Input
Amino acid sequence: SQPSLMVYVDMDSPRLSETEGDAVFLPHGGYSPYLESVIQTLDYVQYGNELNENFMAALLELELLEVVVLEVTLKNGEQNNITGLYTINEEKLSALSAEHLGLLMSKGYLEFIYMALASQSNVAKLIARIEKKIQQQ
Output
């Protein structure tokens, strides 16, 4: 069985104080509202990490990820290659069986895939912002 998650506190941290700030524990035991909010945030981060790992595993299993190199030539002639990017292979996505599409949809992954595809339109906006910043210099 998997070990339960724990919150560790660095007792040597200069941010800790016995006289100032928010209490971590209630005077007679139990978690303070502050510690409860920290635990809730950490739970959310952990959930997001697990969801991301499972999502990426599904994309890899279905061979939907592909590496892209973004080649950008700015108006001033400057050329840039941006590497380390991935995108969804739309051809392979379109060729998926109903069973695989249903599995992606049941896990909420299909929505993520289409959000990622839609976000590709932001690349042109980003390039325009970079060019505007260069012109202002």
About this structure: Helices lie at 33-61, 90-94, 98-106, 109-119, 122-136. The longest helix spans residues 33-61. The two ends are 58 Å apart (CA to CA). Strands lie at 65-73, 79-88.
